[in-house]
Amino acid sequence: MVFPSLTASIITFTISAVVIVTAGSRLARVADELADRTGLGEALFGIFLLAGVTSLPDFAATLSAALDSRPDLAMSNIMGSMAANLVFLGIADVIYRRANLEHAAASPTNLMLAALLIVLLALPLISMAGPAISLWGLHPVTPVIVAAYLFGLHLVRRTDNKPMWFPRLTRQTVPDKPKHYLSGGLAMAWLNFTALAVVTGIAGWVVMESAKSISDQTGLSETLIGGLFTALATSSPELVTTIAAIRRGALTLAVSNIFGTNCFNMLVVAAADVGYPGGSIYHDITPIQMTWGLVSILMTAILLMGMVRRELYGIGRIGFESALILLIYTVTLSIVVASG
């Protein structure tokens, strides 16, 4: 896409971001309904369907940048998006006042997802730190990421179907209980879900196209544009769906959506390597891109410990883990802005 001016680029970027936010807020309602009507439950629906749909803007934006030979913009967008998604859980904890979110939404499925995410995040970071290897234009770690994701989902589903342990139920624990829907058919719900998915995907592509123009016309680094502006814009479905799910009492859906989305985003990383025309994308990016990936591992590990520890209340009814995540993200963002 060609934009006649910087103003046109900014307006297009803003409108596309608003479209993503609006569609994302409706996705949570439709997803909660489909989770109950299909019998999948909030956790599995969040992992297998909602996560993929809310990742569509990230997929479209990252692949667009990779195909255009902008490795820093592509990787900073997807890695920055994953870090932002984890921060959204901290924001959700602030909004949910009954108890710490890590306490109320703890489940074997969410613990497995967090562990899987750490494994998946480590793979491209290892490849970035290792020697430059490329086979048929791909780094060998790319198919490993795909295989690890699929096998990880198999383990997650087995854990959900036959958990070997259960979190201790308290008054603040919110189990996944199906709701009853009196109006509207299942086909219409699927149609709404599909339409919203298409809208978010197209808007994500437009966001990245306008972001490229903004970067070219302002001289701002692609690391800053991708890690901050496009990452937050393409991650907005996760924020609005998470907050909407919290307000609907679908806590398991909220948490599994974030972890599931980040796991799915690792497929976006693999797709970026496939689409990048210059060989392996992992060795054509600047070292600062590793920052978001490492910080995402750190924040995921903190959340994982929080769900195991299950503190009932923190200071101001905000979990210590959530406060720490918000602090880590703020410091990291300051470093990226200062360096870019």
From TrEMBL:
Q: What is its main location?
A: membrane
Pfam families the record matches: Na_Ca_ex
Q: Which residues cross the membrane?
A: 6-28, 40-67, 73-96, 108-127, 133-156, 181-205, 258-276, 288-306, 318-338
Indicate how the chain sits in the lipid bilayer: Multi-pass membrane protein
UniProt domain Sodium/calcium exchanger membrane region: residue ranges: 9-126, 190-336
Keywords linked to the UniProt accession = Membrane, Transmembrane, Transmembrane helix
GO BP term, example: intracellular calcium ion homeostasis
GO CC: one term? plasma membrane
Q: What are the GO MF terms of this UniProt record?
A: calcium channel activity; calcium, potassium:sodium antiporter activity
Location comes to: Membrane
Name of the protein: Cation transporter
Organism (species): Marinobacter salinus
